[in-house]
Amino acid sequence: MSAEINNTENYTSDSPISEQRDDQFQRYGFSKRIADTIKTRKNKESIVFGLFGAWGEGKTSILNFIEEELKTDDEIITIKFNPWRYSDEDSLLRNYFDKIALALGKKMEKWNDKIGGFITKYGSLTSFFGVDISTVGQAFSDADIEKYKERINDFLSESNSKIVVFVDDIDRLDKQEIYSLFRLVKLTADFSNTTYILSFDESMVAAAIGERFGAGDKKSGASFLEKIIQVPLTIPKAQPDALKRFCLKLINNAIDSAGITVEKKEGERFIYQFTTSILPKLTTPRLAVRYGNTLSFSLPLLNSEVNIVDLMLIEAVKIFYPEHYAFIKHHPEYFVGSPKDFFLGSDRNSETVNSHFEEIANGNSGREKSHIKYLINSLFPNKAGSSDPFNFTDEKENDFFVQKRIVSPKYFDRYFSYAVIEGDISDIEFDRLIKEAETSSIQDLATGIKNIIATSDAGSFVQKLRSRETDYTWEQGKILLKALCDNSDLLPNSGGMLGFGAETPFGQASIFAYQVLRQHEKEHIFEFAKELMTYPQDFQFAYTINNWLRTGDRPEEKLFKTEEYDELAKLLVQRAIADAGDDSVFEKYPNQILYILYSWELSDETGFKKYTEDYLNKGKDHVLKLLKAFVPVGRSNARAGEFKTDITKNQYEYIVDHFDKDNLYARILENFSLENLNAEKPYWIDFGEKEYSDLNMARQFVQWYDKGKETIIPE
C-alpha cells in the first residue's frame, strides 16, 4: 500500500508499492524471507505458497517486494498471471501457457550457450511448443497439455532456472473462476523448479469453493485449500502505531491542503474521538487511504461552512461504520432537535434508536458497538436517549448553531450534501458581511442583507445574526441594526408562539436590537436608542424595539432610567403623529393605540384631547373607527389569523376613563338610530365563533353605557 502523497491533487493513491523505502509497515523483511527461500531451495519439485490477508491489507505490495528481491537472481523467471482477463477455463489454460512461453522465449534469446541441447531438440522460439503460439483461443487437448509440460520441464532442467508464478486478487473472482484457477494450479503442479505464490483472503475463498466439496461449507473449502497450498503464510499485521502514523499523516495533509487551521481545543476533541472510537477499526492501510481521500474531497468543499471536527468525525463514521452512517443520514429525526422531542411517548425515544443500532451493529464486536455509540453520542449529544431533556437549554442549542455542529438542524444536511443547501445561508458569505460591517456604508450593508434574505429567508438570517450577538463590536452592532432597520419590511411579523410575534423574524430582530445595546451598556447607548425611535422606516419596528428596550422587572435590570424611557416614548408618539398624517393614529396604528394614548396623555394631555376632538369632528363615522381601535385583538385555534373581539366591561371602563362617554354615545347615535341599536342584543365574539361588526360593537358600548347610567355595571 503506497504512502506516497500527491501534493497537487492531495489524493493518496491506493496503488501497491514495490520499493523498500516506501515500506511503512515493516513487511519488506517478511517478503525478503520468502524470496530467499525460493532462491536457495534445492528441491526441484514445484511448491505452492499461499499469501493470506484481507482486502486492502497490502498483499500486492508484498508480492511486489518478493519480485524485486527475485530480480537479483538471473536464473529466476517471474511471471504475473492475472486470471481476471479470461472468461472460461479453456482460455485460462491457453493464456497461462502463452504467458510461460513468452517468458521462457525471452530467456532463450539470452541463454543460447546454456540451453544448446534444448534448442537442438526443439528448435527456436517460434517452434518452442511445436505449434504457433499465436493461436490463442483454440481448444487444448490433453496431449497438447502434456507436450507443453514436457518441454517446459526440459527447458527448466537444462537451463537450471526457476519459474515463480504470482497470482493476485483470487478473492475477487467468482466461484467458478476460483475453482478453474485452482484446477490450473493442480494441473501444472508437477512442473519442476516452479513456485506458485497465490494471494487471497483465505476466509472468502474457502467459503466460495466450499460448496463443491464435502459438506459444502466453509470448512470443506478450507480442507480443499490445504491440498493445494503447501506453505500457508498470513500477511504480517500492520502495527497499530504504524497505521496510526500513516493515517494521521494523511489527515494532516488533507487539512493543510485545504488551508484549514484547527484550534487546539477542537484538535484535542478530534484526536480523543479518533483514538478512542476510530483507531480500533483502522486495520488496513487501505482504510487509512480511503479516509484520507474522503477528507481531501470534503474539507475544501465545506471549509468555513460546517464544524470541521464534526465533518472529520462523520466522514470517519462513513468509512469505518458505513451502516451507521447510512442510518444517521436517512434518519435525522433521531439525532437533531431538542431532547424534549425524544421523550413523552415520542416514537423517537431511546429504546427505538437503540434497537435500530443493535440491528445495524450485528456484525460488530461488543467493543466496537461501544466505540461507535460513544462517538455518535459525542456528535449528537441531544439525540434520543443521550441526555436529560430538562437540562437542555436554549443557550446550548444556540452554541451548537454558532459552532456549526452537525447536531444543529440548520447544519445537519450540509454534512451529507457537501454543499450549502439551496435557500440556506453560506457562512462564508455571512462572515464576509459581518467583516465589512465597520467599513461599509449603511446602504451597502443593507443591500448585502437584502441579497442574502432574497436567496435564503429572513428567519435564517436573523437567527444567524443573533447567534453571534455577544461578539459584535459597538460599531458593528450599530451599523448592522441600521441596515436591518432598512430591511424591516422583509421581516415577517405574523405567527409565533401564542400569536404574539416574538419568535417571528420581525420580533427576533427587535430582540437583537435590545441585545446589542445591552452588550454595550458602557457606551452612549441612550443616544442610539433615541435614534432607533425615528430611524426605522417601519413605525411598527421602532415600536417593537421600544418594547424590548423596556425589558427587566427591577430598576437595576433596566437599560435606562424612567425619565429616559419617557423621552423615548415621546419621540415614538411624535413619530406616530407625523407618520399618520391625515389618517390619524387611531386608523393608522390601532394595534399600538393603547401605548400611544398612555404616552401622549402623559407628556401632553391637552394636545392629545385637541387631536382627538379634531379627529372626531372630521367625520361622523370616526367615532366608530376610534372605538374599533380600542377593541382587543383575539387569536384562536378555531380560526386563522387575528380578529377583533368585544368591548368588555374592563375595556369600556378604560375607554370612558380617557374619553367623554356622553360625547361618544351622542356620536354613535349619529351613525345608528336607537331603534336599530335596540333591535337586537349584542352578541359576544369570544373565541372567534362570530364575526365582528361596527353595529355589534356599538350595541356593546351602548349596553355598558346604559348600565352605567343605572350606576351598576354587572359583571
How much is the average pLDDT?
83
Query: Strand order across the biggest sheet?
Result: 2-3-4-1-5
End-to-end separation in angstroms reads 89 Å
The CATH architecture of the largest domain can be given as 3-Layer(aba) Sandwich
Detail the poorly predicted runs. Answer: 1-8, 111-140, 342-346, 387-392
Explain this structure.
The strands form 2 sheets. This protein has a 5-stranded parallel β-sheet, with helices on both faces. It has a two-stranded antiparallel sheet with strand order 6-7. It has helices at 28-40, 59-70, 89-110, 116-122, 142-159, 175-187, 202-209, 218-228, 240-257, 264-278, 285-302, 308-320, 322-330, 350-360, 366-379, 394-402, 414-417, 427-435, 442-455, 458-467, 474-485, 505-519, 525-534, 539-549, 562-580, 585-588, 593-617, 622-629, 649-658, 661-669, 674-678, 694-709; strands at residues 47-52, 76-81, 162-167, 194-200, 231-234, 633-636, 639-644. α6 links the parallel β3 and β4 (194-200). It is built from 32 helices and 7 strands. Helices cover 55% and strands 5% of the residues. The chain has 715 residues and is mainly alpha-helical. The chain is elongated, with a radius of gyration of 42 Å. Mean pLDDT is 83; it is low at 1-8, 111-140, 342-346 and 387-392. α10 runs parallel beside α12 (308-320), α25 (562-580) crosses α27 and α27 packs antiparallel against α28 (622-629). It folds into 4 domains: 26-234, P-loop containing nucleotide triphosphate hydrolases (Rossmann fold, 3-Layer(aba) Sandwich), CATH 3.40.50; 240-417, no CATH class; 424-560; 619-715, no CATH class. This is KAP-like P-loop domain-containing protein.
